[in-house]
Amino acid sequence: MASSDIFGAVEFLKREGETALRRFARAHRGTAYADMRFEAMFHRSASANDGDQRDSTETEAAAFGVSVHYEDRGGAIGHGQTGAEIGRLALNRTRLIAALNSALAEAYERARFSAREKVAMLKRHGAAAKSLTRAGAITPSTARDEVAATFRRDPCTLDPDELKRLCRDASASIAGLGTDIAFNAVAALSELRHELFINTAGALISQACSFSQGDCYVVAQTADGHQESYDTIGQQRGFECLAEGWRDELMPNPDLPTFAIELGRETRELAAAPALKPPAGEVVVVTNPHFNALVAHEIIGHPCEADRALKMEAAYAGRSWFLPSLEHNEIGRPVGSPLLWACSDPTLSGYGHYRYDHEGTAGRRVTHIEGGVFRGFLNSRATAAALGVEPNGSARASEAWHVPLIRMSNTFFMPGQSDPAQIIAEVDRGYYVCGHLIPSIAESRENFRISARRVYEIEHGRLGRLYRAGSVIADSKSFFSQIDAVGNDLRMVAIPNCGKGQPMQVKRMSNGGPTLRSRARMGGG
Amino acid sequence: MRTAVDLKRFVREATALLARERELAAFEVYCSTSEHRVARLNYTSDIPSRGVEEFKSLNADGFALRLVMRRDPHETGSASEAGDLSLEAVRAAIGRARATTVIDPHFPGLPVEPRKLPPSTERAPASDLMRAKDGPVAAAAWAMIGGAISAFESGAPLKLSHPGLVIGGDLSLIRDRIAIASSAFADIRSDESAHFVSSVTALVESLDAKGTATATGASLAEMSRAGARLGRDAVTRALKLRHGERPPAGRYRIVLGPQPVAEIINYMVLGSLTTGAFYSATSAYHGRFGAPVIDVRLSLTDDPLAHRGPVRRRVTCEGLPAGRTVMIRDGRLVGLLSNFYDSHRLLADEHRAEKMGPDASAAPTFPVRSGYRLGESAARRYDAHPGSTGTNVIMRTRGGVGERELIEAVGDGIYIGRIWYTYPINGQRAGDFTCTVSGDSYVIRNGKIAAPLAPNCFRVNATIEQVFAKPLAVGKRSETAVVWGAPEAYFVPALALEGIELAQVGAADSD
């Protein structure tokens, strides 16, 4: 039973939310700033294992997150946040406003406590704690805008049986490849989200978006070996992108059944292929766009997150090799070959597209590397102030009840001029590495090992034997500095599961790149 | 959070409503309320910072229904709802569940036994963390910052204008409460749990030093003690580890401390010890159930009722009694974590004999004790499906030795105290893993700790066989270890190993 009722809560808050927030601020002395993020969602999904239906769901959800900055008489500022899932209670206007007020009050008390503790800490430790004093002024957003979702087939009115059938048929087709398919799982989802951002500075931004995603996991085993492969297709569109496929220059995808069977066939082929026994030392590696998506994600995107660079993630996800310190860093310095360009761009259509981040800042293209020279970070308003730059709209939360973190959008290596076939043809001996699997990276992303789905030997410019269990190992700067060819074949892929934060926020985005050629060590199995 | 009385009342009313639905052969109502309070730390001496970067909470209440249709025992539907514990919400959920039924030939029905829980399953006295308000959490977090700054002021070798002191981490308080009933159960089952986890990392970038301190527990007193010491301990440890050496790449004898052992178990082993992994032919121990899989001195158990375990579970999220699962006994694989669905699916699998292997019994059993519905914050969630998850994971040893003897057994090598980004690089079944040595590590010479190891200078490329099959020596104590993002708490020994490949991470690029 589909319903659009839950989105009525968004319309109500568009009319009443600012008043509620202003009333709260007036009634709570010292409130320097407050904001609320509200999100309503309709979600439909299905899954199948080995050709049998496994699961089907339809959910309406609503949640919010609030943030309060408190400033005491002495100028100390404290911050507090509260998030909650409210569900159908959002349809009851009285209860919704009461829940928001309760959360704001809780966040306010946390912020007040924080300010008090900061003052006490400064009294106790004096100059040793001087970095706790007020940072550069942060100007909040005042933007007002409305962004509609784009889809042809509305997730809310989708027939659940169609989604179930699509998954079951795709899974059955993989199972039908033969007895060397030990297991497969196919899942699909289609959802509509409507986000609202309101703050005490006058911002009111409503953004709706549709997501449709297909996931496929295949396990194959033969007498010679075993292979587990997985992949995802996804667009910010309706179900049409899964049922019919999606034509796009940067991020095309086949329909879900075709995608699934292709992965199934590849996994079978890999299970029968030998595991790579790599040579010692560096070799020439040509990496394809799908593999480079994970390189862009791990070695460009993550270390370009300003919160990471400013040590805020040191205990969890590490630091950034682009900024060892504010005094000694790579800004304006070469970090790769002159052929290397990379950027993030939420304005592009892709799985990481958006118009405004969750601080109400308009998203824009951020160039990270320009002709091999490092140029800048993704940031939030607070980190932009710390770095002395303009905010670039990169603070996003995976759900409204989480606190926004700095996240990638569509982050990719930019294309060059070379023909990918020529890039391979120029290699006397090396490896062609296709499709990413699993990453492992060093704490500041200065080193990585990323495993691939398919690895081919290259001999005298031609592809030779296929191997499984191969991976590329390199120090990041060395890998980037040795890039001597960049293809003209930019492609992006949907990344559905980037994890960051405490507690973990799992975010969707796009990453990609063209074919690249460099040097690295190879890992095997 | 909702009270246990509220949850039980809702479940009672919902089951009464469902019992009147004639087309249902069976049904289940699961209701949960959970809260995750987090004080996230960020203090940087040379960059403006907040100290406690965020003090936030995430609250989630809701319920889930599972329905079994009378017309087909394999036809099942499910739906969940956030926030609204009313009969109107139940009616809406019933409608959605009916509209989205699937016919799953592997669906074994809902659990029916035990129809009534034995009295011994009654809730233990609640942890005082269930009632804790913001104050103790915030106070403990700020105490960590203060303790770290004090330790640095008193212990730093030089007074630098830009010392590069970084304090990061968090204090998380996780609590949840559930109620569950079904058409088969004669009672309403409930459970609640509260524990805290904290990890504090101190970096002194001017000294190329890094140290970490962690704690987990189930009481306010333990949380308060953690607040008093973690910041101080992390900085003290970091200062002892300054200006570490960067040995060359090679094959080494090593001691793996408790954190690395826990991280390898979490990412490389535990997922293989489930019925789901054996069914999908992805277990690293495929074909070896009942056979020796690790060293005979080692045993691995999951225990939701462990006396010192911070994770306390008496009832699973399928309404079944939680219980201890011995997974590996004296090196032999003897048990698996399982939920109800996966247990039956593997038992009924026509390829089970091949997947389990020749040493498995012809009639194995997979007791269903580990079906938990967990979210990203490791608290129970109403809208999650039951997975197969650990609680307090304990590795015990026979013939274990003290830390001094472990280091002596290595002779010349590396003590690895912390690893990072540990993943099955060639898939779970292959058992290969890679990670980096991120801190808290030392060079061993002549059987003694000789010098600190620079953080982030080595990448480990190894297999779980190399770690667990034949250690040089095993530690005698199972120590607490925290793995970021894992719902389990770990109690594991240190292990001395040989022949582990350590590749160098570029010295010029490392911090």
What does this structure look like?
- The complex is a heterodimer of chains A (525) and B (511).
- Chain A is of the alpha+beta class.
- Helices cover 24% and strands 36% of the residues of chain A.
- Chain A starts with 7 loop residues before the first helix and ends with a strand.
- The mean pLDDT of chain A is 95.
- With 511 residues, chain B is α+β, with helices and mostly antiparallel strands.
- Chain B is 23% helix and 34% strand.
- Chain B contains ten helices and 24 strands.
- In chain B, strands 8, 15, 16, 17, 18, 19, 20, 21 and 24 form a nine-stranded mixed sheet that branches. In chain B, strands 4-3-2-1-5-6-7 form a seven-stranded antiparallel sheet. Chain B has a six-stranded mixed sheet with strand order 11-10-9-14-23-22, covered by helices on one side.
- In chain B, strand 10 (325-329) and strand 11 form a beta hairpin.
- In chain B, helix 1 packs across helix 2 and helix 3 (134-155) packs parallel to helix 4.
- Chain B starts with a helix and ends in a 7-residue tail after the last strand.
Topology readout:
The complex is a heterodimer of chains A (525) and B (511).
Chain A: H1 8-27, E1 31-49, E2 52-71, E3 77-85, H2 93-125, E4 144-147, H3 160-175, E5 181-199, E6 204-221, E7 226-235, H4 240-243, H5 256-271, E8 283-287, H6 289-301, H7 306-309, E9 342-344, E10 366-370, E11 373-374, H8 381-387, E12 395-396, E13 405-406, E14 410-413, H9 420-425, E15 429-441, E16 447-459, E17 462-467, E18 471-475, H10 476-481, E19 485-486, E20 491-500, E21 505-513, E22 516-523
Helix pairs in contact in A: 1-2, 3-5
Chain B: H1 4-19, E1 24-44, E2 51-69, E3 75-82, H2 87-99, E4 102-103, H3 134-155, E5 165-182, E6 189-204, E7 209-217, H4 220-240, E8 250-256, H5 258-269, H6 275-279, E9 298-302, E10 325-329, E11 332-333, H7 340-347, H8 352-356, E12 371-372, E13 387-388, E14 392-397, H9 403-410, E15 413-416, E16 418-423, E17 432-439, E18 442-445, E19 448-452, E20 458-463, H10 464-468, E21 473-474, E22 479-481, E23 489-492, E24 495-504
Parallel strand pairs in B: 8-15, 14-23
Antiparallel strand pairs in B: 1-2, 1-5, 2-3, 3-4, 5-6, 6-7, 8-24, 9-10, 9-14, 10-11, 12-13, 15-18, 16-17, 17-20, 18-19, 20-24, 21-24, 22-23
Helix pairs in contact in B: 1-2, 3-4
